[in-house]
Design goal:
three-stranded mixed sheet, 9 strands, 260 residues, 15% strand, alpha/beta, globular, 2-enoyl-CoA Hydratase, Chain A, domain 1
Length: 260
Amino acid sequence: MSDIITERSDGILRVEFNRPERKNAMTKAMYMQLAQILNEAAEDEDVRVVRWQAAGDTFCAGNDVGDFLKPLSPGETPQARLMDAFIRFEKPIVVAVQGAAVGGGTTMLTHCDFVYAGATAKFKLPFIDLALVPEFGSSYAMPARIGHLRAAELFLLGETFSAARAAELGLVTRVVPDDRLFVTAMETARKLSAKPGGALRATKRLLKQGSVDQVRAAIKVESQEFGERLRSSEAREAFSAFLEKRPPNFARTAAPVAAE
């Protein structure tokens, strides 16, 4: 079965991550598939709203670390293709977040229009602990939305924060009881589906007009830095420690100090 499944009904396209045994961690193939789904939905007149959710007890554990250990391919990356699809997508996206949203599982949410979080949902931006940097334009979107100091706390410490804290920061639309999460997302999707589609798309386009160029610029710089970080000795140590289930030792990756 596919790692991402879709179902269309009454103008609503349900997109569901379906890799619960791996906490819905994103592979390169999943990035490509989700980008294709969004691009096709953008052109499909019968799709008015996207409702996004995940199977299992975790929304998304971020990138599949195993993919990071594979050689980088030249040209456009799967992540870049998905980022472009998100930026160009003009129809509403309603997402339901249960369990954990880690790394890209959180930063992808900045491209959605309604984000409902279950009361027990947890968020984390652990890029720094993997010797990496933010992606998906979040180095611009997060400070723009919540301010530099709060964004620095989330990115530089990389600590887990609650759904209540996410709501306080303005990263989610609303926190709802876990057993009402999917129902709430569906209710909103139905309301949106009944509204004039052209006006919805135009309004979303207007809401994003002041940030699209900045987000694209941030993504370009992030991608270059991310690739360099991915090839660094710090990242190799971080990934090895993760796979070996041990604490990383970044002291041994430090560059030697030149003698005076």
